[in-house]
Design goal:
single chain, extended
């Protein structure tokens, strides 16, 4: 997970956290707040509607749909949840990016899918040649 922080001397700063994505997705599902409304943001204005209703990409008065936001019933609960999540992240063990990058670069590089397919095709043609030679030897 990447947490964007701020800009320092033209460089983007933040934090990188190692996650078990399956566990994290389950955590997000369990802690998610129900949405109350959907805020639709158009070129020339915005409107709010019930969640899970059809969102028209074009409104005759407001123009093209630019973005939408699912809004919770209780904004204070959302704020509390976000603060709680930030506190959890702040207690993650510290990592060292240079050490992590070195670890990744020291790993044996796995072949790409295309390279793997080429190798498999090459191995298959070698097997066919050997089988063909055996058949030829048997027929003599």
């Amino acid at each position: 997970m990447i947490e964007v922080g701020d800009m320092e001397q033209g460089k983007l700063k933040g934090n990188i956290y190692e996650l078990n994505y399956s566990e994290y997705c389950n955590h997000v599902k369990k802690s998610a707040l129900p949405d109350e409304n959907t805020k639709l943001i158009y070129e020339y204005g915005e409107k709010t509607q019930e969640p899970n209703l059809f969102m028209s990409p074009i409104d005759s008065h407001l123009g093209n749909l630019i973005n939408y936001e699912e809004q919770p019933k209780d904004f204070a609960a959302l704020s509390d949840l976000l603060n709680s999540e930030k506190n959890i992240r702040n207690n993650f063990p510290k990592g060292y990016i240079k050490k992590h990058i070195k670890k990744l670069s020291d790993k044996e590089k796995k072949p790409s899918i295309i390279e793997g397919l080429k190798t498999a095709k090459k191995n298959q043609s070698v097997k066919k040649k050997k089988n063909s030679q055996r058949k030829h030897e048997i027929s003599l």
